[in-house]
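Before a colleague's protein record goes any further, I have to sign it off. Would you go through it and say whether the fold makes sense for this chain? Take the sequence as given and treat only the tokens as open to question. The record follows directly below this note.
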Amino acid sequence: MNRITIAGLVTLLLVACGEGDTRPPSSEVAARAAAADPIGELGDHHVIYVPTYSHVTHGEGTARRLTTTLSVHNISFRDSIWVHKVRYYNTDGKIVRDFLQEKVSLSPMATYQVRVSPGDTTSLGANFLVEWEGQAGVPAPLVEAVHVSLSSSIGTSFVTRGTQLVPNVVPDDFTP
């Protein structure tokens, strides 16, 4: 009986120490390119505006550069959403970067993130527009930008939250 117990434990140990978790990192699982969008014809795309800051000033006008991480959280427990565009604009309203080349599907409770390095030149009043789509009744994603700066012994961090625009559609000719 001891041999069976030992053999069982050895087998369990070998299985547990096998190749490990071969799934891709959660960021890769959460955001997959959506080859076929089953929602496509259901209506308008929604647009969320998120204020962001490439730097803040303090003291006598000294600028502190910030790293910004924009996160689009699908807060639905049951339904996927599709993120069509994530555009980053400078203070003058000109597009600095278009982060998506094709739409991305976010599974329930998944997150899509983009990062803007502290070296960007958007000036103080930059912003993001996030265009998304979901089935009727799906809650709007929670979209936030986390701003962080660490230098010397001083740290600065804060969060800005997006707000859904009305009307929900950015006109096709809106390309500053």
Notes: Residues 5-31 have pLDDT under 50 and may be disordered.
